[in-house]
Amino acid sequence: MLAVTGAGLVVIAVALALFLLRVNRPVAVASPEAFAEQILAASESGSVEHSVYGGAIRVARQGNQVVVAAENVPPNVCVSVGWKLVRKGLLSINGTVPLRVSAAKLSELCNQEEGNPTLTWSPRAVE
Questions:
Q1: How distant, in Å, are the alpha carbons of 82, 98, 126 from that of 101?
Q2: Residue 119 in contact with residue 84, Cβ under 8 Å?
Q3: For residues 48 and 89, what is the distance between their CA atoms, to the nearest angstrom?
Q4: Cα–Cα distance for residue pair 98/85, rounded to 1 Å
Q5: What DSSP designation does 19 have?
Q6: What is the spatial order of strands in the sheet that 89-93 belongs to?
Q7: What is the architecture of the domain spanning 32-123?
Q8: Residue 111 and residue 103: Cα distance in Å, rounded?
Q9: What is the pLDDT of residues 2-61, one digit of tens each?
Q10: How many CB atoms lie within 10 A of CB 30?
Q11: Domain boundaries defined on the chain
Q12: pTM reported for the whole predicted model
């Protein structure tokens, strides 16, 4: 009887360990920094399908030009990440390219339409 109980405890311990390993897998944290990293990574590898916020990330290549489109971006993240991306390339928010970039203009564009905006970004060509 003691051997069965010992074996039962081992099975339970193994099951618990597997459950804890499965539950504690690293998950991408939904933050503007993580989202910006996803956009940059997608421009290099094209392998990101969904953002940390759940929207689709699509990558298009035409020769040396890369365009990354991220859908369903929360407006506050749109402003924060837009500010970072515009310094590294060409940014479009819902199809509009801001001619003068300021936090106020980015906020206006990110909150302009109903629902969450789509960011489209193309990195500057390396000379």
A1: 10, 6, 22
A2: no
A3: 19
A4: 12
A5: H
A6: 57-62, 65-70, 119-123, 89-93
A7: 2-Layer Sandwich (3.30)
A8: 12
A9: 455 655 555 565 554 545 544 443 445 789 999 999 999 999 987 788 999 999 999 999
A10: 13
A11: 32-123
A12: 0.72
